[in-house]
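Anyone able to model this chain together with adenosine-5'-diphosphate?
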Amino acid sequence: MADVALRGVTKIYDASRTATRAVDGVSLDVADGEFLALVGPSGCGKSTLLRLVAGLDTVSAGEVRIGGVVVNDVPPGARDVAMVFQSYALYPQMTVFENLAFALRVRGVRGEALRARVHAAAETMALTPLLDRRPAALSGGERQRVAVGRALVRDPAVFLFDEPLSNLDAALRVQVRRELAALHQRTRGTTLYVTHDQVEAMTLADRIAVIAGGRVQQVATPAELYARPANLFVATFIGSPAMNVLRGADAEAIGAPAGVDVGVRAEDLTLDGAAALRGRVEGVEYLGHEQLVHVRVGAASLVVRHAASAAPQVGEPVGVRIARAAWHCFDAATGARVDVPA
Ligand SMILES: Nc1ncnc2c1ncn2[C@@H]1O[C@H](COP(=O)(O)OP(=O)(O)O)[C@@H](O)[C@H]1O
Ligand SMILES: [Mg+2]
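re: yes, here you go
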């Protein structure tokens, strides 16, 4: 396998002079064997960045290195990367075996060498009993396994995934996600994995790069991102329900200095009749193992994680306790994380 290094990578689409900076000065390192997820909202430049690594698009500025070699001018076929797309087009007239074999045949692999590699990939993706079927006779999850198997069979230096699970229903998505995690545990292939789904990123990745507006907001392990988000965007993007944010007068009401927004996660809030911060219940979401209680406090609507039993009623007045140690403070003007001594 190989590492990937991006240095100041920029892509400007210059249609009709309204230039879009789809990717804006991205520098990132993916270590040999690492699984790095690129996560961010729709349109933030994730697919463009992946296409630049694959060579399907050319950079406007910056450098793409794979295994220490600058590949800016290397065509996609010679970059030794394998890409799995959201809409994985399998060849419908070919069997699973032939779908897996296709990329190898194109590269001149024949005979026993071809069969051995196809069978190894099929074994890894649990496709051996399905090798004679055509895609029409496969379930969605099985088709997606074939799509991953086609990348695997090539034994590339780098795997690139672009939202590979988003066409699957919820149950299948969880199943294939676990299969991908197990696959990476076994193969340790260098992987760049694009998703807009933070749960996918959190559960699969060694590290996550959060992208917004074509720029990297933060690169960190899932635990670091959750515990110390670098700015308000990351704070509210990572975590479900989204982090609560108290601004302006609401932040000052809990003792924050002027010009500081305070973020607090739902699990760090408790309903407490004796708490000084007063509000009214706006809604209750019952989730079985817990309930999410939405409380209107000043201009803010706070989400409180609550035990499954004994939630207050909508319209009830309540007190909300916020542990000072649970504050995440952000500069109200820039959104950057700031340390405010207690
Ligand atoms: N071929 C293109 N021409 C012009 N603009 C494009 C092209 N491809 C993508 N864009 C724009 O670049 C931005 C990033 O797109 P994309 O990388 O597809 O986002 P994501 O994958 O994060 O949803 C968007 O504003 C999109 O409209
Ligand atoms: Mg995309």
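The mean pLDDT is 93.
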